[in-house]
Amino acid sequence: MEARIHLPQGKQKSFLEAVLRKSELSVDQLAVYCTVTPRTFRDWHREKYFGPHKTFEKLARDFRVTLPKGETLTPYWYVAKGASLGGKKYLEMYGPPGTLEGRKKGGRVSQERRRQDPLRYKALGCNVAKEFIVPAPSTELAELIGVFLGDGGLTSHQATIYLSALVDREYSYFLAGLIQRVFRVKPSIYERINDHSIRLAISGVYFVNSLEDLGLKRGNKMKNKIRIPKWVLRNKQYATACVRGLFDTDGGFYFHRKRSGIYIGWCFTSYSESLLGDVHNVLQRVGLNAKKEQEGRLYMYDLWSIERYMELIGSHNPKNIAKFQSHLAVREKK
């Protein structure tokens, strides 16, 4: 590819018109003279394209026409300009390359395109967010909301429930089945030997978004001042089911000794004052009077209240059921 000449606006047209007059040739004849098509020559005349520098010098020399001064453009001169424009467009769309801001912006653009046309990106072999249908309100859903409020957590792409591998193994199996029934997704189960923990995880941006729509919040639960969602509190059955999920994860039965014998106690722990208040109010609605004697804790001491709790609300955590039944068995022997 040869160099081009960039003449001031209007000068290229006037130069070629002068060549046509001096040569007394037609456009088609001059095109042949320049070894180009008539269409190309007309494009030069309309200043659509810059003319070849050597060809214009030849025309000026052969037909004694002065060639105006202009800028010589080296071969592929347009590449740098195109790259510059392309770079500006890239910055506009994706942000600066190689920076955290740029990567974030590029990621957001990519995710938005995948949301708009998931089938296309799935066919290309790209990862596409799993579709998820929000389940209808139910007692089982409300119980899982309580579980997530208790020992759960949300990130931008994953919902997780943390349990003890020492005492909650059977309960983890129950929760895995409950999640599958309610959400129609199978959670992944991980166990860590070093800290004796079990983790139930459900991945998916849409899943996390759906839990947020149901009233949960991602991030630090204390900073977010978590509470039982309003749709749960408005329904007595949903509210008690939610408290069951909370108690089975962040509460439990314990035994305390007095001179007259060993007694069972009920305790729920949460350092979120708003959540603790919601649990206390739900218990009062069903006639149970839990006492707040320590910061972040609710207690019930008398056996009547505890039996009433198990009758009205109950537990799905085998460790709680076992402790309650063992205490009743001991009392019956007396």
- Going by CATH, what is the homologous superfamily of the largest domain? Homing endonucleases
Class based on secondary structure composition and strand pairing: alpha+beta
Number of helices: 16
CATH hierarchy, class of the largest domain: Alpha Beta
CATH topology of the largest domain: Endonuclease I-creI
Radius of gyration, in angstroms, nearest whole number: 38 Å
Mean pLDDT: 85
Extract low-pLDDT stretches.
none
CATH architecture of the largest domain: Roll
* Strand content range: 15-25%
Q: Note the main sheet.
A: 4 strands, antiparallel
Strand adjacency order, main sheet? 4-5-7-6
* Oligomer designation: single chain
Count of extended strands: 11
The topology string of helices and strands comes to EHHHEHEHHHHEEHEEHHHHEEHEEHH
Q: Tell me the overall shape.
A: rod-shaped
Distance between termini?
Answer: 106 Å
